[in-house]
Amino acid sequence: MDPEPFYRLIGTRRDVRGQFTGEPLDPGKLGRILAAAHAAPSVGMSQPWSFVIIDSPGIKKDFHDHVMAERAAYDATLTEERRQTFSNIKIEGILEATYGIVVSYDPDRGAPSVLGRHSIPDAGLYSVCLAIENLWLAATVENIGVGWVSFYREEHLAELIALPERLRPVAWLCVGPVSHFEAIPDLERLHWRSRSPLAEHVYHDRYGQEAGVSKLAVTG
Q1: Tens of pLDDT, residues 171-205
Q2: Which of 62, 139, 151, 212 could form a Cys-Cys staple with 144, CB 3.0–4.6 A?
Q3: Strands, E, within 42-201: which ranges?
Q4: Measuring CA to CA, which residue among 174, 175, 169, 132 is closest to residue 152?
Q5: The domain containing residue 111 runs over which residues?
Q6: What is the pTM (predicted TM-score) of this model?
């Protein structure tokens, strides 16, 4: 198997904000994307995720208004310099994307004896994040955009889409066809933050102990 297409796919994945076209999403593509998410590994094979597909204009508008209020609250915490930079950054594509997909976590799935979760309670939550990454990569290869919205209060979103009390909303994903994928991720392109070299994040044996090139070829 040629590994190059896979690594190229990872390098082209983007958190999409402003490129959604609003065009219909082919049901076959949506099904394949969700199937990829559902194929993710999960602790004890509990598969603790659920996907709520949203196209209601009313729900989208309510959530968009809530996100904009949270954006304003965050903006108020910034220095003037950072506020100027932040003003050029679009944080969501809620109204423009074809769908919102809310991914939630059910801690009761597979309970009471979830194999492998007894000493790490958050292992189920990690499993949901793996499903999201699978969804994101599958969408990218299908030329479908995904944008993870994080400016919201969990209780507001849970109430908005009538999640049962035990379920935790992990992500609102904006999903749909896009005009293009940016060559450079938005937060780098708009000068919010630059990607640091991989070598600054890799250690040997103990945290803080440098991993020499003799141990690992770290060039990224």
Answers
A1: 999 999 999 999 999 999 999 999 999 988 999 89
A2: 139
A3: 49-54, 99-105, 144-149, 168-177
A4: 169
A5: 15-189
A6: 0.94
